[in-house]
Amino acid sequence: MEHSDKFKEHINLGYTFKKDSFIIGTGMLEKEALTGAQVKIPLKTLNRHGLIAGATGTGKTKTLQVIAEQLSLKGIPSVLMDLKGDLTGLACPGTNNEHIEKRSASIGIPYEATGLPVELMSISQEKGVKLKATVSEFGPVLMAQILDLNDTQSGILSLVFRYCDMKHLPLLDLMDLRSILKYVINEGKAEITKEFGAVSSSSVNTILRKIIELEQQGAENFYGERSFEVEDFVRQESGRGVISIIRLTDIQNRPKLFSTFMLSLLSEIYETFPEQGDQDVPKLCLFIDEAHLVFSNASKDLLEKIEAIVKLIRSKGVGIFFCTQSPTDVPDEILGQLGLKVQHSLRAFTAKDRKAIKKAAENYPISPFYDTSEVLTAMGIGEALITVLNEKGIPTPLVHTLLRAPVSRMGILSPEEIDLQVGKSNLTKKYNEPINRESAFEILEEKINNAAPEKEEMEASSKSQRKASAAKDVGFFESLSKNTMVRQLGRTFFRELTRGIMGSLTNKKR
After folding, report:
1. Res. 349: pLDDT tops 90
2. I need a labelling partner for 242 at 20 to 30 A (CA). Which of 352, 402, 455, 476 fits?
3. Residues contacting 61, CB < 8 A, separation 6+
């Protein structure tokens, strides 16, 4: 048997599944694509998460696009974090050409240009469905992790949330949170001290500064109402899964806001979705582009929270896929949880780069057909090393893969197309109407304003009482001074007192 035939048999044996799957590409041997060696991804194990890695310009985003397309065609919805603005083209059919025809023929699949159901979303000023969440929904523990508070500051935040629950003060946005924190160390200090004990003003001021830092990254647009319901991510149109694209191009330099949003989204999905175990298809898939922004600026507590959710959320039927330049961008604890690995080419310019490539190669199954560290630096655009978990949870053979072309547009939507896409969405009507109901800020402001006249009235009353008392004292002494007997006793007293003093002085002189 020829070497290429052994390779095809090796691939077909490793990538044949009992349940449904989709074709991602075909195997390559000695830099040649081989028809009849299709590489497939089983739907059953997509809730085991995945990684799409590779140097800039190697095709990571297009791979993400291809996987999202194939999931949609299988009726599986997905959520895409679009930090570069490259993914809106999923809404429109792609364009066929000679290069795409040749690639498709090598893989053994027809090319059918297709537009897919897309929902454009935003947490900032970008056009789209506005995703929001209230401060109360985050809770004190999550807010403390986001703000990177110490134990003392976290305790104060828990106290504040407890006080707001007791007094029915809704914490909807960051203005509400700032208002209650100021109240705790000013007008409400006596009440808080009586109820919970003394609160450190310096610690409260530190929390306030950290909230301002979060606001400066644009978080005031994210906190508030109406809160997004994560069930709206799980939708189909004409049997195809809806692809929700969260447009994040204007927050690339605001990683704090990005990691805040990511953690809140994962937490909400985990707490809302029911347990369903390992099903034949995932319920939802999330793709996080530029994933290093989540991890490089996150505190230790925040990382631990993300790691915990990634480990547990697969039981909800949710798969998470990280897209980044190097596998080392993802913490080892999370990397060890990932089933699907798509590794595009890496560049080696320094000793540090070569060390990273060697480390990356060690994370893949050993292949009798490839020197992994050598292939990692020699792949072209649109090629990748792939391994995935089969239906028994066993890693499939590592294969150098020629990836299929996207069936949707590789470019982006024009501003006019974006307006049209946003305008026809039912979710835009549901979430983009401003809501500003009475919350902690308004209630506390009213309470302080009402307390001011009462305080003035009390002070005025106290002042008049003091005047009345003084006047009464004056009247009493005046009445005594008019009494003849009292005046006589007074004169006698002072005369005898004077004599005593003068007598003692006279005796001293003698």
Report:
1. no
2. 402
3. 84, 86, 87, 289, 323
